[in-house]
Specification:
The protein has three helices and two strands; from the N terminus they run αββαα. By secondary structure, it is mostly helical. A two-stranded antiparallel sheet has the order 1-2. The longest helix is centred in the last third of the chain and has 25 residues. It is elongated. It starts with a helix and ends in a 6-residue tail after the last helix.
């Protein structure tokens, strides 16, 4: 019982640095803004490939509405669609840039 309580209270201190290292190695940046308001710090961390996405109002709205796994999946799909749109728009405006 004491082990379970100890892990619940201090587990984030052990796990969060491992997650941070893993995400940084994969090319992600941690958002310094509080995207999701919750009681635990690990819910407030958001990692994105494009640092500008930390300030995306649409992403913030999605994550504020749904804090769970479904909200994170919605946020990921939102960012994928956003970046696909931006890439297609870039290709239209600069057709020879991708060569």
């Amino acid at each position: 019982m004491f082990l379970g309580i100890g892990l619940a209270v201090f587990g984030g201190l052990l796990v969060n640095p491992i997650w941070a290292y893993t995400f940084k190695e994969a090319g992600y940046s941690r958002c310094n803004t509080v995207i999701v308001r919750a009681n635990k710090q690990f819910f407030n961390d958001a990692w994105v490939l494009e640092p500008a996405d930390c300030y995306d109002r649409g992403l913030k709205q999605i994550l504020h509405e749904d804090h769970g796994k479904r909200g994170f999946e919605k946020g990921a799909r939102y960012l994928e669609k956003k970046h696909q749109f931006l890439q297609s728009r870039e290709a239209v405006h600069n057709p020879g840039a991708g060569l």
